[in-house]
Amino acid sequence: MANNSGMQATPPTPVDKTPRTARGRRTLRAILDAAAAEFGEKGFHDASISAITARAGVAIGSFYTYFDSKEAVFTALVRDLSGQVRDYVAPRLATVADGLAREETALATFIAFARTHKEIYRIIDESEFVDPTSYREHYTSTAERIRSRLEAAAARGEISPGAQDVRAWAIMGMNVFLGLRYGVWGEELDPESVAEVAGDLLRRGIAP
Fold this sequence. Notes:
Blueprint lengths: L21 H21 L6 H8 L3 H7 L3 H24 L5 H18 L2 H12 L1 H24 L8 H22 L5 H16 L2
Helix pairs in contact: 1-2, 1-4, 1-6, 4-5, 4-6, 4-7, 5-7, 5-8, 5-9, 6-7, 7-8
């Protein structure tokens, strides 16, 4: 849009909505947690901003301090959940030296996470249609973490050399569906028992 002088107007600078105070970070966290509950229960299309703010116990104006739309909070939530999985699993792997044992621990830990965050499956699945970029990013970043672990394990001689990227996607696929079956649909087996069976498959399939 031109201004009165005939010169091209400078596009507005995007507003940085990152909270700068501890109170702001708490409010943002409350909104994201409420969004997870709302989207997990109702799905994207039936969820509403007013319901999210009611769950969070904040004013609608506070929502717009951090997000421009329902789509924006959904996108942020997908990335937040992906980060939560990463941050939940990583510390538990730090004390496990063997590469194959790490994958077994990662699976058991993810199943435990899924049991307390069952909404993650509905939200991630819906993101394929609501925000395909975030959907793809969630899985590619997860596979990349697994691939890096496998490459390190191969370098130490703990697993055979091979196409670690393909293996990473195969392991991730196994983890996703085991998490669905034993984290969301039923809890009749403890996570460690499920991971032990999956770990046996890995040891027989890719151990040197």
